[in-house]
Design goal:
TIM Barrel; 8-stranded parallel beta sheet; two-stranded antiparallel sheet; about 15% strand; globular; oxidoreductase; Aldo/keto reductase
């Protein structure tokens, strides 16, 4: 089994840097993908109330032979459930659906203008009561993080955003490092949209790796966590096979320059 890399969050908790995202997976497909991922060596599973598969994710975790303490489980409060009391209720519902004893990381899924402050304060309450091991945010670009500082008493442990060589948010990465917030990339593989890019293929050929493996390794070497989504066993294994090589400094610089501000999800700044 490849050696898993971990990061230590700002509250001292360890989190795997590479995980499985389960967006747009339902019923047995979601369950099977998590079982395959856990068998492969993944120890971070990322879901959300919005994905409507928390029950299946919980089933797979209990069905697996892996000790619960060794699995890092993330879920998120849905946009329609934001607000102080609503968030507390949403957390209880997610915990009930997952049917596990605790959640490792709970995130604000989107920075909804009218509710994001109260939602964050609810997350702080959940952490202070020991009901969740770590709290964080998703889709928070620099202006959102600056605003959050004006009322937060806990610094987010994680900021999960769209991030890839083709959407290289270098300034956000630097800000998160300064604030000791772990940046995490969703849709790191751009939903396959750039896998035939000749620049990427050239580097993949050089290292005898696939384009997806190059992208994931690039993120790891920047200290960025990634949660690539796949329900395909071969791809699940391929995405995890990134711990046996290192991209050179010069090639890292080349990949950094792939940026074209390519988004496959809406721009969070539209909500600011």
């Amino acid at each position: 089994m490849p050696n898993q890399l971990y990061t230590t969050l700002n509250n001292g908790i360890q989190m795997p840097l590479l995980g499985l995202g389960v967006y747009d997976m339902y019923n047995r497909e979601a369950e099977q993908a998590v079982l395959w991922a856990l068998e492969t060596g993944y120890r971070l599973i990322d879901t959300a109330e919005m994905y409507k598969n928390e029950v299946e994710i919980g089933n797979a975790i209990r069905e697996s032979s892996i000790n619960r303490a060794d699995i890092f489980v993330t879920t998120k409060v849905n946009n329609g459930d934001q607000g102080f009391d609503q968030t507390l209720r949403a957390f209880d519902t997610s915990l009930q659906k997952l049917n596990i004893d605790y959640i490792d990381l709970y995130l604000v899924h989107w920075p909804i203008k009218a509710t994001r402050k109260d939602t964050w304060l609810a997350l702080e309450k959940l952490q202070s009561e020991g009901r969740v091991r770590a709290i964080g945010v998703a889709n928070y670009l620099i202006p959102f993080l600056s605003e959050l500082e004006s009322y937060a008493t806990i610094t987010p442990a994680v900021n999960q955003v769209e991030f890839s060589p083709y959407l290289y948010l270098k300034d956000l990465l630097e800000v998160c490092k300064q604030k000791k917030i772990q940046l995490q990339a969703y849709t790191p593989l751009i939903r396959g949209m750039r896998m035939q890019d000749p620049k990427l293929l050239s580097i993949a050929n050089k290292y005898q790796k696939t384009p997806a493996q190059i992208i994931l390794r690039w993120a790891l070497q920047h200290g960025v966590s990634s949660i690539p989504k796949s329900a395909n066993l071969q791809r699940i294994k391929e995405n995890f096979d990134v711990f046996d090589f290192e991209i050179s400094h010069s090639d890292m610089n080349l990949i950094d320059n792939f940026n074209e501000n390519l988004r496959v999800v809406e721009d969070p700044m539209d909500l600011f």
